[in-house]
Amino acid sequence: MMWVGKYGEFKSSKPGINDVDDIYAPVNYKNEHWIAIWVVIPKKHITIWDSIHSHIKHAQLAELIEFFTIMIPYLLVELAPTDKERVKYTLEPFTYERVKAGVPVAQSGGCGNVKTIREKMATKMFEHDLCYHRDGDDADYTELDMYERQ
């Protein structure tokens, strides 16, 4: 479907957040690897897509995903607006599976680039501040730990 400037074409027919069936989210593992999860609320199931299966062992994945399997049902119960809605949910943990077929394989440099870009941007912004805003008064820069405190 092509965007033609009308929200009605893309707007969900579902009236509120309590009628959301699917949640898609990125999940970071130890600041070094990203996976994607698909939470299907009616089925109480989480599907995990990982482009590098060998990066996270089964036990590590179980530990990482346990938070989601427990917290999502809890949030559904606690955030339900009425008792009628609350009864639809239980605190039973969601099930999960890691999909191995049909997941695109990561290419070289596919993981970790965001961290590198963020570090480079922070360095560039810091250098910019030093070059263009330095007025010769070192006292302003002691809080940045550029100079040893005496």
Describe the model:
The protein is α+β, with helices and mostly antiparallel strands. It folds into 2 domains: 14-99, TATA-Binding Protein (2-Layer Sandwich), CATH 3.30.310; 113-144. It is 31% helix and 17% strand. It contains 3 helices and 4 strands; from the N terminus they run βββααβα. The longest helix has 21 residues, at 58-78. It is globular and about 50 Å long.
Topology:
Elements: E1 22-29, E2 33-40, E3 45-49, H1 58-78, H2 83-86, E4 95-99, H3 113-133
Parallel strand pairs: 3-4
Antiparallel strand pairs: 1-2, 2-3
Observed structural traits:
alpha+beta; four-stranded mixed β-sheet; 31% helix; TATA-Binding Protein; 150 residues
Q: Averaging pLDDT over every residue, what do you get?
A: 75
- CATH architectural category of the largest domain: 2-Layer Sandwich
Helicity level: 25-40%
CATH topology of the largest domain: TATA-Binding Protein
Question: How are the strands of the largest sheet arranged?
Answer: 1-2-3-4
Measured distance between first and last alpha carbons: 65 Å
Structural class determined from secondary elements: alpha+beta
Tally of individual domains: 2
- Most strands sheet: 4 strands, mixed
Organism: Brassica napus
Protein name: BnaC01g30910D protein
Domain Ubiquitin-like protease family profile: 1-150
InterPro entries: Papain-like_cys_pep_sf (IPR038765), Peptidase_C48_C (IPR003653)
